[in-house]
Design brief:
It is a single chain. A hairpin with a 2-residue loop joins strand 5 and strand 6. The chain has 8 helices and 7 strands; from the N terminus they run H-H-H-H-E-H-H-H-E-H-E-E-E-E-E. The protein is of the alpha+beta class and about 160 residues long. The longest helix is centred in the first third of the chain and has 15 residues. Strands 2-1-7-6-5-4-3 form a 7-stranded mixed beta sheet.
Length: about 160
């Protein structure tokens, strides 16, 4: 009886799971995660959806909704205004590296990586992973056109 119940539960779980996480691009993966609503809204306001749905590969250091909420009051609302689109694009593209970089590629290393925005991010993977002052809290969420690493802060260009 236990074995049949266990097998039924395992089969139900297998059918409930997505077939392959890589089937979705970076934007669709972020939307499906449910914890990047602010990031997705910002990407839409910046006109970057088509870019991040493109071939890539991309590495996105994705701030959570909580990371955006930690910004000074009114910051997100101000950035989402059409007149601030250039600033929003600069901030968002500072979170994107035009290559697929998995955590294993940088484990134990430090590097300055070029972003789509044009400046470099400081990545320190000697003890956990930090990107500038943001901590990577979940790594290697694969998408069809790259990878997402979840960070606990919005990374602002200097």
């Amino acid at each position: 009886m236990f074995r049949r119940t266990f097998m039924s539960a395992a089969a139900a779980l297998a059918f409930a799971m997505p077939l392959k996480a890589q089937a979705a691009d970076i934007v669709d993966t972020a939307v499906a995660a449910g914890s990047f609503n602010t990031l997705v809204a910002a990407v839409q306001a910046a006109g970057l959806v088509d870019t991040l749905k493109g071939d890539g590969p991309f590495t996105v250091f994705a701030p959570t909704d909580e990371a955006f909420a930690a910004l000074p009051e009114g910051t997100v609302e101000t950035l989402l205004k059409p007149e601030n689109k250039d600033q929003l694009v600069a901030i968002l593209t500072y979170h994107v590296v035009p290559a697929k970089v998995m955590s294993g590629d940088i484990a134990g290393k430090r590097a300055k990586v070029l972003t789509v925005q044009g400046d470099r991010l400081s990545v320190n993977a000697k003890n956990g992973v930090k990107v500038n002052d943001a901590k990577v809290v979940q790594a290697d969420i694969e998408a069809s056109n790259g990878v997402i690493h979840v960070v606990d802060a919005v990374i602002l260009p200097e």
